[in-house]
Amino acid sequence: MKVLVTGGTGYIGSHTVVELQEKGYDVYIIDDLSNSTIEIVDAIEEITGVRPHFSQFDLCDKAKLAEFFKQNPDIKACIHFAAKKAVGESVEKPLLYYHNNLVSFVNLLECMGDNNVNSFVFSSSCTVYGEPEYLPVDENAAIKPAVSPYGNTKQICEEILEDTIKSTDLQGIALRYFNPIGAHESAKIGELPIGVPNNLVPFVTQTAIGKREKLRVFGDDYDTKDGSCIRDYIHVVDLAKAHIVAIERLLEGKNVTPYEVFNIGTGKGFSVLEVVRTFEKVTGEKLNYEIVGRREGDVEKVWADTSYANEVLGWSAKMDLEQMLKSAWAWELALSKKEGIKA
Ligand code: UFG
After folding, report:
1. Which domains does the chain have, with CATH numbers?
2. Does 179 sit in the ligand 1 pocket, CB within 6 Å?
3. To test the ligand 1 pocket, which listed residue (91, 137, 200) has its Cβ within 8 A of the most ligand atoms?
4. Element spanning 204, H or E
5. How many other CB atoms are found less than 10 A from the CB of residue 221?
6. Do 86 and 111 meet the contact criterion of CB atoms below 8 Å apart?
7. What are the Cα distances from residue 103, in Å, to 10, 18, 108, 178?
8. Distance CA 129, CA 145 (A)
9. Strand order of the sheet with strand 119-125?
10. What tens digit of pLDDT does each residue of 113-147 get?
């Protein structure tokens, strides 16, 4: 079974390719390498013993995408990760985000339609809930106006997908991710932020290893147990596995409606300071950090109601925060030793 994975050399994409290949799928990656490196393809081969097919181009180039589908007529399904994802950058360069994330999305759905590829999994985000009215937040919660162009592209893509599904043979699942962290147990793939990381855990591991001087904890005056923000952190391998379950659900025709949406998290919320303390505990490293003011646009607290995914998809997250942080640290240590992949 041939499956297309766009953004397959990225953080979540690469872990999903590994899981797909371990289940015997024949994986075709399209990635423009704008936020990843070709060495990830080697790493996937080292882990699984199989080299995924790889094509380097931008999905905004529709002629190339159409040619790709012409050359690979047996592709049966697509998992779509390729997108720009830096919240702050999207505020500075909204048109870059709208152009990249939306044009590529429309091109992909059009080419899939032209080639009768009717199974599609989309990487969405809990960002669509904004500051939720109730917790844990379930899939029926209100979609809030997005605080960033990045978040808006996730909402718009969900809408485009739902509308397209209504009028075509396409069947789709949107997975709303909470906060993916951690790395593959082999420490051969993981998160590879270019420049200064925006996200908490890469910043934590880079600080512990000495690449950054100090972690800044954004705010300790929120209405939470210790004043810092709460998130639902999920191990990236658990998240990757949810994609396999979702694509199989579509390929086997087990989906109840043509368009389905699932929260993908652990259902547990941890504060920033709990993450810091757990990291120190499992690694034995002392983390240099200071409390600073709030970061604009941050949600105070969010964690998932995962019962729908647990019951209907038959998927649940298996790994706890300690395992997530241990694996993130093992990856940082491996990265620091590795040549060829630049952190
Ligand atoms: N944080 C710090 N210091 C840092 C980085 C983060 O204290 O240096 C805090 C943040 O304030 C937040 C928490 O750590 O409270 C998590 O922050 P991340 O940036 O790791 O994650 P976010 O929840 O802000 O963002 C994630 C994804 C986005 C997505 C968003 C909402 O990275 O892509 O969830 O779904 F838009």
Report:
1. 2-182+233-264 (3.40.50.720)
2. yes
3. 200
4. helix 200-209
5. 10
6. no
7. 19, 27, 8, 25
8. 8
9. 53-55, 26-30, 2-6, 75-80, 119-125, 171-177, 259-264
10. 999 999 999 999 999 999 999 999 999 999 999 99
Inform me whether the pLDDT recorded for 340 exceeds 80.
Answer: no
Q: What's the CA gap between 59 and 336, in Å, rounded? A: 32
pTM tops 0.85: yes
176 and 128 in contact (C-beta within 8 Å)? yes
C-alpha closest to that of 174 among 98, 81, 106: 81
φ, ψ at 46 (rounded to 5°): -60, -40
Could you identify the atom of ligand 1 that is nearest to the CA of residue 85? 33
State the Cα–Cα distance between residues 66 and 340, nearest whole angstrom: 32
Instruction: Say what angle helices 321-337 and 200-209 make with each other, to 10 degrees.
Output: 50
Task: Tell me if 298 CB under 6 Å of ligand 1.
Answer: yes
Please give the helix or strand (H or E) that residue 45 lies within, else none: helix 39-48
- Which residue's CA is the nearest one to ligand 1's atom 2? 217
- Nearest-atom number in ligand 1 for the CA of 178 is 35
Percent of the chain with pLDDT over 90: 97
Burial of 97-115, coded b for 16+ CB within 10 Å and e otherwise, reads: bbebbbebbebbbebbeeb
When pLDDT is cut at 50, 70 and 90, the band that residue 343 belongs to is very low
Rg over alpha carbons for the chain, rounded to the nearest Å, is: 19
Angle at 80 between CA 56 and CA 50, to 5 degrees: 60
Contacts 24+ apart (CB under 8 A), 56-59: 56/30, 56/31, 56/32, 57/30, 57/32, 58/32, 58/34, 58/104, 59/6, 59/30, 59/32, 59/103, 59/104, 59/105, 59/107, 59/108
d(CA 103, CA 99): 5
Query: Exposed, middle or buried by CB within 10 Å (0-12, 13-18, 19+), for 198?
Result: middle
CA distances from 118 to 78, 155, 252, 313 (A): 8, 21, 12, 19
